[in-house]
Write a structure and sequence with these properties.
Rieske Iron-sulfur Protein, globular, alpha+beta
Length: 145
């Protein structure tokens, strides 16, 4: 790479990285308030609702912290009553996955997965760990066992 081009790219990175980070921070990842008992995590359905300027906005997914692992679970709402719980740990090298655009992507090596855990693009070859979910009128239950 030419010196001039290298310096130009470094300048773009120096400006772009802080701007990108502030943008992502403003989008924010929402961690749901949950309770746990036995081998279940209980997530109120109301965690998918955000009130902004007196208007209800529905979240497509929320993050759930799990005490037994350093990785969060993404609880994805697909349709009216279909909830998919996926551990955000890449099966390739164990990096924490990013969520967006209806896919999970690995920032370390580029693997991509569907929201149901199926590999779309490697280097990962194994599906993501998913958990059975159930629900009632008020809550969603993530079954850890």
């Amino acid at each position: 790479m030419e010196r001039k081009k290298f310096i130009k790219n470094c300048c773009y990175a120096a400006i772009g990285i802080p701007l990108g980070a502030s943008f992502l921070e403003s989008c924010g990842v929402y961690y749901a308030t949950t309770t746990s008992f036995k081998e279940k995590i209980v997530v109120p359905k109301s965690e998918f609702i955000k009130i902004k300027k007196e208007k209800k906005i529905f979240r497509q997914f929320i993050y759930v912290e799990v005490a037994s692992t350093k990785y969060p679970i993404c609880l994805y709402k697909e349709g009216e009553e279909d909830y998919i719980a996926t551990l955000l740990k890449c099966t390739h090298r164990g990096c924490e996955l990013n969520v967006g655009g209806g896919v999970y992507s690995c920032p370390c090596h580029g693997s991509e997965f569907t929201i149901r855990g199926k590999v779309l693009e490697g280097p990962a070859t194994k599906r993501l760990q998913t958990f059975k979910t159930s629900f009632d009128n008020e809550n969603i239950y993530i079954h850890l066992s």
